[in-house]
Each structure stands twice: as C-alpha cells, then as structure tokens.
C-alpha cells in the first residue's frame, strides 16, 4: 500500500515541486493539495492521508493550528504531520511540535531527505535529528508560552531509570548513545522509551523532549 500524502503550502509552485518528487516514488502517492490550514482540515477529512506535509506560515489558518486540529485528542486515526519550514530555527516549529507534529524538515532539504522523512513519519517515528532537537529546545523552550502554567506531576509515574532515559532523550541522544551512557542494550533503551511515552501519554520522542523541558526536568542550556 502506498503512503498517502497531502501537500499543504500557500505557494503553488512549491506544491508542484513536492508533487513531482513524491510521485516519482512507487510507495508514495500524493492524494491532494491545500493552500492554507482550513483547506487542509477539509482535505484531511475527505482524503484520509497518512502524512500531511504542512507549511507553517499560511493565510486564514497557519500550520500550527491546523496541526493541532488534525492530531488533537479524539481524532480517529489522525494523520501524521511533517512540518515544512524555511528556517531551521523557526520558533513556530516548537509550537507545531507541541501541537502534535511528528517532526520538521527544511523546505530546501534534498529530495531524498524529503522522501525518507515521509516514510519515517508514516511508520510512526519522529523525524527530527537529535542535534536539531537540542538546538530548538535550548533556543525556545524557556521563552515560548507552554499553555500550561502548572508543572506536570505525571513525572511521579516514572521509575528512576525512566527519568534518566527521558533526560537523555531531551538532550538529543540517540538510543545507541543512551545505551552507551547507561551501560545497557539498545533494546532495553527502546523498552524504557516506550514506557515513558505510554505513561506520559506522549506520541513520540520529540514530544517527550518538549515535555521534559516544559516540566522543568531539563533546563535549556543544561548538560
């Protein structure tokens, strides 16, 4: 089954370019396009895509609010959202990740990276390099409003080892790096990460990283 992709960008020329790239792949199918967030919501309901390539800055409704509505609670099998941005340190990217996006990609990324990103996100993984996670959160987590003033108490549900793993995820370490740091196997790390996501009700390791910063478990700039 081909991965069904919806293109959302207010620039028709960019949508055409993305379509040409994606339709050259046998396992990808562009099922529709939208020029703003409101159109995206209609298209998601009508077309049921697997992945939405979502621009951030658009008229009528921006990509952050559209992402929030597409991936929010109560959605029946929500599509995965991969955010597209012109700037690698766009403050709106963090807001989109909070809203439920599975990752982000620069608009000028090579074609093979775009294709791979869609496959990764469709498979349920997060598409955000650890180094970029760290840069984004260090730059913005202490400055953007979280929308939740109270510090979450759900950290109490985690074991000491799960808290350790969450801190390392937030600091941008891969599973292999966490395994080396804690002297355990990668399989064990994957198990711990899975438990953290389940207990905290999070979608992926990107949202886990955001949570760690917003809960105060990890502070911007900390080592």
From TrEMBL:
The species this protein was found in: Streptomyces varsoviensis
Residues with the 4-aspartylphosphate modification: 55
Span of domain Response regulatory: 4-122
Keywords: DNA-binding, Phosphoprotein, Transcription, Transcription regulation
Limits of the HTH luxR-type domain: 151-216
Segments crossing the lipid bilayer: none
The protein's name: LuxR family transcriptional regulator
InterPro entries registered for this protein in UniProt: CheY-like_superfamily, NreC/VraR/RcsB-like_REC, Sig_transdc_resp-reg_C-effctor, Sig_transdc_resp-reg_receiver, Tscrpt_reg_LuxR_C, WalR-like
Record flagged with keyword DNA-binding: yes
One Pfam family matching this protein: GerE
SUPFAM superfamilies recorded: C-terminal effector domain of the bipartite response regulators, CheY-like
């Amino acid at each position: 089954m081909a991965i069904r992709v919806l293109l959302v960008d207010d620039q028709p020329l960019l949508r055409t370019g993305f379509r040409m790239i994606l339709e050259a792949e046998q396992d990808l199918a562009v099922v529709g396009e939208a020029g703003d967030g409101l159109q995206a919501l209609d298209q998601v309901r009508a077309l049921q895509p697997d992945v939405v390539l979502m621009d951030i800055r658009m008229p009528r409704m921006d990509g952050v609010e559209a992402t929030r509505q597409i991936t929010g609670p109560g959605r029946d099998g929500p599509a995965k959202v991969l955010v597209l941005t012109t700037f690698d340190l766009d403050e709106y990217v963090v807001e989109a990740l909070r809203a439920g996006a599975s990752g982000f990609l620069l608009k000028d990324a090579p074609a093979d990276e775009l294709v791979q990103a869609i496959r990764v996100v469709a498979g349920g993984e997060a598409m955000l390099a650890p180094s970029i996670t760290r840069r984004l959160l260090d730059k913005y987590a202490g400055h953007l409003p979280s929308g939740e003033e109270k510090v979450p108490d759900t950290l109490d549900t985690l074991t000491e080892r799960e808290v350790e793993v969450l801190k390392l995820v937030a600091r941008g370490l891969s599973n292999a790096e966490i395994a080396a740091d804690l002297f355990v196997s990668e399989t064990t790390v994957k198990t711990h990460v899975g438990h953290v996501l389940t207990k905290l009700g999070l979608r992926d390791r990107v949202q886990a990283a955001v949570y760690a910063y917003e809960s105060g478990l990890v502070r911007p700039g900390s080592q």
